[in-house]
């Protein structure tokens, strides 16, 4: 639908002279120059004059909406049906992830593309396309004009043909109703639920600390003052197809300070070994790896959003958006002097954007 705006009359310019005759001539020329040309003759489309063409266009729109529904169902099938967690071999799992990503992308493209093209084809072929003139008026119309505007909107809804084209209406409802299901599955896969995965890590009593990634148990005597060591549980490789997820949760940093510099809270006096402490490497703000250590101040820094933790105060947050300290892993030494976990984490690791007791 096109709109034609009627131009307002232009006042005479005083700079061109003040003569009444000149002014009259200018006004006459202006009126003649801006004569309303009117609307061009309306050209009817084939669907406007041929009921069979209109029915054919209706079937085409409905077919596009049905293809959109199939695309949405294909997206769900790709999400559910293509398994990659069960592959133990790295390259097999990588190939399965690649296949899943391509299948989801193609099916979602079909769903959105056909829904959009169907809506455009519907508007181009079946909705009215008469030209109309809309005259300028005050910002707020009269009550009669406002009532007419409401009537025009109602007419527009009626002109879409939803009431008399149930095939289009029903297929559109089906395509629009199925489309959000894909988003539900995508949101579900954005991360683990806090009440399950993040409250359980691979760390447990008797689990030896090994260097990450080279491996090998760690002697307490080998940890130098002021050093930082990245560690993992010794048996983490037994996680199988969950190895990457378990490694992400179990990442720990090991530091050594002078014992008198530590100020452990009540009940945690024996969680360190001669100044050696172990904390979760996962920032409690958004889960980024905390790996920057300032030896002179004993501060740990998260590089993503600059949350800063004081190791001498049980990794208390002293700057940044994080809301709680890094969880501490209680450690001890065995009879041979190797570092071993006294127990697992006593609180969930990771971000704190969920309510936790």
From TrEMBL:
Coiled-coil portions: none
Membrane topology designation: Multi-pass membrane protein
Residues annotated as transmembrane: 61-84, 104-123, 167-187
Region (Disordered), start-end ranges: 1-47
Compartment list: Cell membrane
Gene Ontology cellular-component terms listed: plasma membrane
A UniProt-annotated Pfam family: QcrA_N
CDD domains: Rieske (cd03467)
GO molecular function term, any single one: 2 iron, 2 sulfur cluster binding
Gene3D superfamilies in the record: Rieske [2Fe-2S] iron-sulphur domain (2.102.10.10)
Biased composition range(s): Low complexity: 18-32
Keyword Iron-sulfur: yes
Keyword terms of this UniProt record: 2Fe-2S, Cell membrane, Disulfide bond, Electron transport, Iron, Iron-sulfur, Membrane, Metal-binding, Oxidoreductase, Respiratory chain, Transmembrane, Transmembrane helix, Transport
PROSITE patterns: RIESKE (PS51296)
The Rieske domain, residue ranges: 271-340
Job of this protein: Iron-sulfur subunit of the cytochrome bc1 complex, an essential component of the respiratory electron transport chain required for ATP synthesis. The bc1 complex catalyzes the oxidation of menaquinol and the reduction of cytochrome c in the respiratory chain. The bc1 complex operates through a Q-cycle mechanism that couples electron transfer to generation of the proton gradient that drives ATP synthesis.
Family indicated by similarity: Belongs to the Rieske iron-sulfur protein family.
The protein's name: Cytochrome bc1 complex Rieske iron-sulfur subunit
Species this chain originates from: Kineococcus xinjiangensis
Phylogenetic lineage: Bacteria, Bacillati, Actinomycetota, Actinomycetes, Kineosporiales
């Amino acid at each position: 639908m096109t709109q034609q705006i009627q131009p307002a009359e232009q006042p005479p310019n005083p700079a061109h002279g003040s003569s009444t005759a000149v002014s009259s001539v200018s006004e006459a020329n202006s009126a003649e120059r801006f004569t309303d040309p009117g609307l061009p003759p309306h050209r009817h489309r084939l669907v406007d004059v041929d009921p069979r063409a209109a029915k054919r266009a209706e079937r085409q729109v409905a077919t596009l909406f049905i293809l959109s529904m199939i695309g949405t169902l294909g997206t769900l099938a790709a999400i559910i049906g293509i398994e990659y967690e069960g592959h133990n071999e790295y390259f097999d799992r990588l190939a399965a992830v690649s296949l899943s990503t391509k299948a989801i992308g193609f099916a979602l493209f079909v769903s959105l593309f056909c829904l959009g093209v169907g809506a455009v084809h519907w508007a181009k072929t079946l909705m009215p396309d008469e030209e109309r003139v809309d005259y300028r008026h005050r910002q707020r119309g009269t009550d009669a004009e406002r009532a007419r505007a409401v009537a025009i909107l109602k007419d527009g809804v009626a002109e879409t043909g939803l009431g008399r084209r149930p095939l289009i209406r029903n297929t559109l409802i089906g395509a629009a109703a199925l489309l959000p299901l894909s988003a539900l599955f995508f949101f579900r896969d954005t991360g683990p639920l806090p009440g399950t995965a993040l409250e359980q890590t691979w760390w447990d009593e008797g689990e030896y600390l090994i260097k990450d990634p080279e491996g090998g148990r760690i002697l307490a005597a080998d940890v130098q003052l002021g050093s930082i060591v990245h560690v993992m549980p010794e048996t983490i490789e037994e996680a199988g197809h969950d190895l990457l997820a378990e490694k992400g949760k179990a990442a720990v940093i090991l530091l050594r300070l002078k014992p008198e510099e530590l100020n452990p809270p009540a009940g945690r006096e024996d969680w360190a070994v001669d100044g050696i402490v172990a904390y979760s490497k996962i920032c409690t703000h958004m889960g980024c790896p905390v790996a920057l250590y300032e030896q002179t101040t004993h501060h740990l820094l998260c590089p993503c959003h600059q949350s800063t933790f004081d190791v001498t105060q049980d990794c208390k947050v002293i700057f940044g958006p994080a809301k709680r300290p890094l969880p501490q892993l209680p450690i001890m030494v065995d009879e041979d002097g190797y570092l071993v976990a006294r127990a697992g984490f006593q609180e969930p690791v990771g971000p704190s954007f969920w309510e936790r007791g």
